[in-house]
Amino acid sequence: MDYFYAQAEERRRPMMNGKIIVVCMYSGRTPDSGVVSSVNYLGRALGIHAGMPIIQAKKRAPPADSIFLSADREYYAEVSAHIDSVIRGSLERVSQASIDEWNGEDSKAAKKAAGLKESILGASALKCSVGVAPSPLGAKMAASKSKPDGLLTLDEQGQRSLIENSDVEKVPGIGPKTAAALNQLGIIKVRDLGKADPVSLSEVFGKKTGSWLIDLGAGRYPAVLEEEKEQEEVSRIGTLKEKTRDPYLILSKLDELEKEAKQWLMEMKKSYSTMGIIFITDDMKTHTRSLSFKKPRVWSEDTAKDKEALIKQFLEEDLHEIRRIGIRFGNFMDLGKQTTLF
DNA sequence: AATGATACTCGGC
DNA sequence: TTACGGCCGAGTATCATT
Predict the structure, then answer these.
(1) How many angstroms separate the CA atoms of A335 and A342, rounded?
(2) CB A137 within 8 A of CB A172
(3) Catalytic site residue A101?
(4) Cα–Cα distance for residue pair A247/A13, rounded to 1 Å
(5) Contact between residue A166 and residue A141 where contact means Cβ atoms under 8 Å apart
(6) Cα dihedral A212, A213, A217, A222 sign
(7) What's the CATH superfamily of A233-341?
(8) Which pLDDT belongs to residue A337?
(9) Is the CB of A292 under 7 A from strand B?
(10) A168-217: what fold?
(11) Which CATH architecture has domain A4-71?
């Protein structure tokens, strides 16, 4: 989907037409603390982008022409589910990649693409961009290139040329950190990866990422759609009103977050056998402390002792103040109907 | 030594 | 000169078990 959250808000309130729409995650620390989640193209033209601090975005957005909204993720999830059903109704195989992105495989993909765009528009009133190519990687890069409201179909040669002539940071999976490290090695475009030394790539990026980059440079990428994977963990994280090391202040925020995560476990009928706490200290570093259990636990079991122990452990090991806190459950097992027997 | 489980950090989106 | 969310999986180090 194109600028998904912001576009969904535009559709929800058409009277905002012509305005710069900035959808934000407000942390609650100060009135304007938080970051931009999504912004329409009017806002992008002024340099506003996802991940930008709200305070910075406000300096670029003329107040009379701008609307700053708080992200309503439940609503976007509903819209996403609706679009999902349209796509699944159209293509032979489908895998949802994120709240606003899908991969599909279909023997008539090129023939169906335009119609699918129309169906999505009809069902949701939202525009999207579609890429069709011989591989999922090529299709995704084709879709990105065609944004907004685009459709780009590539054959084998078109795909190869798009990929190898792209800057490395345009490749999904290569973000700012990896791109910077590659640029440091003189690798700017994907085609440069082909001439790079495989040994140093593996040294710098590790075995797995290293060989992935080597394959990419050699023009080898999977042609088949990956199986849709089950979610492996659920976490909820939030920002504390003030940075603190007080276990009671930490625990009270953690309890809110835990309720939400456990609601998810209950709805999804999952037991878990690891739980962890996520700490983001005032230097913005992330830390986690976790526990595993021999017997899987269900959402209704008490975790007070474990939370206390993990917080105590972290505070002993790290002297920073805590800015954000989160809770995580993982290592799921499905709860069958029989759980009530016990 | 091999394999699997666990704990934790990194970084992509 | 700074400002700064909320997720998740990948990757890897280390520990436990055989």
Answers:
(1) 12
(2) yes
(3) yes
(4) 43
(5) yes
(6) positive
(7) DNA polymerase, Y-family, little finger domain (3.30.1490.100)
(8) 54
(9) yes
(10) DNA polymerase; domain 1 (1.10.150)
(11) 3-Layer(aba) Sandwich (3.40)
Range(s) for CATH 3.30.1490.100 in chain A? 233-341
pLDDT per residue over A57-83, tens digit each? 999 999 999 999 999 988 999 999 999
| CB of A222 lies under 7 Å from some atom of strand B | no
Assess contact for A223 and A134: CB atoms under 8 A: yes
Instruction: Outline which parts of chain A fall under CATH 1.10.150.20.
Output: 168-217
Q: Which residue is nearest to nucleotide C4 (CA to C1')?
A: A53
Q: Which of A187, A132, A189 is nearest to A165 (CA)?
A: A189
Ranges of residues in chain A with a pLDDT under 50 are 338-342
Task: Tell if the pTM clears 0.85, that is, is over it.
Answer: yes
Three-state DSSP class for A243?
Answer: strand
Nucleotides of chain B in contact with protein CB (under 7 A) are 5-13
Question: CA–C1' distance A341–C5 (Å)?
Answer: 41
CA A204 to CA A111: how far, in whole Å?
Answer: 43
Q: How far apart are CA A223 and CA A139, in angstroms?
A: 10
- Location of each CATH 3.30.70.270 domain in chain A: 87-162
Residue A267's contacts (CB-CB under 8 Å, 6 or more residues apart) are none
User: For strand B, is any atom closer than 7 Å to the CB of A273?
Assistant: yes
One-letter amino acid of A22: V
Decide if domain A87-162 falls under CATH 2.60.40.290: no
Spatial separation of the C-alpha atoms in residues A231 and A212, rounded to whole Å: 23
